[in-house]
Amino acid sequence: MDKNATRYTVQLYIYDLSRGMARSLSPIMLGKQLDGIWHTAIVVYGDEFFFGGVGISSCSPGGTMLGPPDTVVELGETEVSEEIFMDYLSSLGESTYRGDRYRLFEHNCNTFTNEVAQFLTGRPIPSYIIDLPSEVLSTPFGQILRPILDSIHIAPPGGNVINSGRHN
């Protein structure tokens, strides 16, 4: 690494969409303990970036209707410039992370933040977040709920869509 290169802090913002209800209800409904229903975002260059049903969006940190995050994880630093990062996001928004490609269990905000974290820092996000869909789907109730949950597209209000390229 170049010792003179500018470094930018990379953080993972973690939100519990259930606001604590998953911890209480999951043992009854799923037969196993879930600590939350996680929405994540990457914070870098003074903005929060996330993926949802409208594509890749950004806002000021904590600026969605979700408010401040429940947890902030320091992922490390990056030497990737903001210009290169925005080109990277634009490319992702035109292909892999278009809004119409959002799938609650297989291709969601956490998939996005994991990929972006690895691009910026070389490290993944915590496995308990990535493993949540398989934890839910491994239960009989999760399998019953899957058709309903598959139709849900989460897009926290308050963000600016970076690339809303919707293709057929």
Percent range of helical residues: 25-40%
Q: In percent, how much strand structure appears in the residues? A: 15-25%
The major β-sheet equals: 6 strands, antiparallel
- The radius of gyration computed from the alpha-carbon positions, rounded to a whole number of angstroms, is 16 Å
Structural class: alpha+beta
Oligomer: single chain
Please state how the strands of the largest beta sheet are arranged side by side: 5-1-2-3-4-6
Estimate the global geometry from the Cα principal axes. Answer: globular
Calculate the mean pLDDT score and round it: 87
- Uncertain spans, ≥5 residues at pLDDT below 50? 164-168
Give the beta-strand count.
6
Number of helices: 6
* Straight-line distance between termini: 42 Å
Write the H/E string, N to C: EHEEEEHHHHHE
